[in-house]
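stage 2 :: seqdesign
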């Protein structure tokens, strides 16, 4: 999960994502990034977040999906979308 409104922490998010993906026990698992606070006026767009996290560079090793959302009230819908996505990519 990444805070779409906190650009100062994007580099930290990139480092954390890379640390997770370097784990040898999870090669090739699908990656989902949840971009929250998309409803705020200064929120970074999903395409800009994908660029900041270098998600397009993952395509040779991982399938990935970035979901932007407004609040935790849609959590159930996001989880349902994730399961639909993971079934589709496998």
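stage 2 :: out
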């Amino acid at each position: 999960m990444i805070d779409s409104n906190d650009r100062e922490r994007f580099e930290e998010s990139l480092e954390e994502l890379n640390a997770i993906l370097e784990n040898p026990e999870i090669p090739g698992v699908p990656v989902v990034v949840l971009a929250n606070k998309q409803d705020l006026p200064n929120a970074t767009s999903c395409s800009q977040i994908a660029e900041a996290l270098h998600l397009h560079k993952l395509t040779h090793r991982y399938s990935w999906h970035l979901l932007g959302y407004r609040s935790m009230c849609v959590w159930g819908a996001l989880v349902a979308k994730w399961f639909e996505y993971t079934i589709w990519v496998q």
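stage 3 :: structure notes
- The helical segments are 10-21, 46-52, 75-89.
- The CA atoms of residues 20 and 26 lie 9 Å apart.
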